[in-house]
Amino acid sequence: MRASKRINTKATTDNNTGFGTNPGSYGGRFINKDGSANIEKRGLAFMNRISWYHTMLEMPRWKFLFILFAFYTIVNFIFACIYYGVGIQYLNGIETTGSEWIKFGKAYFFSAQTFTTVGYGHISPNGFLTSAVAATEALVGLLSFAIATGLFFGRFSRPRAFLKFSHNALIAPYKNGSAVMLRMTPYKNTNFTDAEAKITLGMTVEENGKMTNKFFTLELEMSRINALTLSWTLVHHITENSPFFNFSREDFESAEGEIIVFVKTFDEMFSTTVAARTSYTLSEFVYGAKFELMYTENEDNTSTILHLDKLNSFYKVDMP
Predict the structure, then answer these.
(1) By C-alpha distance, which of 180, 177, 164, 175 is closest to 290?
(2) 220 three-class SS
(3) For 160-184, how does the pLDDT look when each residue is reduced to its tens digit (9 = 90+)?
(4) How many CA atoms lie within 13 A of 170 on its CB side?
(5) d(CA 232, CA 305)
(6) Any alpha helices (H) in the chain, and if so which ranges?
(7) Burial 259-268 (b: 16+ CB within 10 A, else e)
(8) What is the pLDDT of residues 311-320, one digit of tens each?
(9) pLDDT tens digits, one per residue of 25-45
(10) Exposed e or buried b for every residue in 190-210, given b needs 16+ CB within 10 A?
(11) How far is CA 163 from CA 25, 179, 184, 275, 285, in A?
(12) Around Cβ 71, how many Cβ atoms within 10 Å?
């Protein structure tokens, strides 16, 4: 990160971030926009660095389903090749005459029936070797479906903080001064209570002639709310105690820093505490803007409408 000489080093520092203080050891941002740590682990074999269970739970839905279908197709193809190699004559119900592709296709569908333990009975193994292969495939199928069922349940039941954050943080007029503002909102039919937020600023500063990574706590006007049902705008008032004190538009545009947002809240549906996080680099700040209101009353004024598509909507304003 490019050093900032104008940052208010009298602001409250945060020494509990877990990111250390060596400025030469970081590349890019600390936290990605999706909340994951911007860390690439090396030094061990790939298989020792990967938790396949966590990987399968966290990957996108389309990729998860693609892997399941690909595994199903490939395993059946392998066993079909084994049956075909042993000999089609050892599979009762498959004619030994005709196209080899048709024979292989029937062996493939026999494999699929054995793998899923359906067993229609039209084709059956004949002989010790073919029966042993079929028994092995049935065991593999049972174990595979047990694992797939566990993964489906894990993905379906895993507690998540269904929160979306605004794409940008804003520098907006606030109380005869200015403030850093960012917004979040729940986007599923969940009930969040006891929501708590914390924002940390990470920036490389010059201190006693040396470059060092410093982390500062950005005090919030409201760091905790009883219920998170609508949108929640986090506001850091830039006062003389703020690390952004005396920052101009040019300072925000030229300096390189990052604010890290941590949010935790109680999900009544899962009956547990869930957490979410994201980050904003200073290049993702919009100077001189305010968020548009996200919620309005409905047509007959009997309920409130939360417009999720307005999460990132803002308008430009003049700064004092």
Answers:
(1) 180
(2) coil
(3) 889 999 999 999 999 889 999 999 9
(4) 26
(5) 15
(6) 46-49, 52-58, 61-86, 100-115, 128-157, 249-254
(7) bbbbbbbbbe
(8) 999 999 988 7
(9) 667 788 888 888 878 888 888
(10) bebeebbbbbbbbbbbeeeee
(11) 31, 22, 7, 9, 20
(12) 13
Please give the model's pTM, rounded to 2 decimal places.
0.78
Instruction: Report how far residue 183's alpha carbon sits from residue 266's, in angstroms, rounded to the nearest whole number.
Output: 19
pLDDT of residue 151: 92
All residues at 6 or more sequence positions from 164 whose CB lies less than 8 Å from its CB, including other chains: 184, 185, 187, 308, 311
Residue where the block lists tokens 């549906």: 269
Residue listed under structure tokens 């993702």: 284
Measured CA to CA in angstroms, residue 99 lies from 102, 106, 123 at distances of 5, 11, 17
The predicted structure's pLDDT at residue 120: 82
Cβ(90)–Cβ(127) below 8 Å? yes
End-to-end CA distance of the chain, in Å? 29
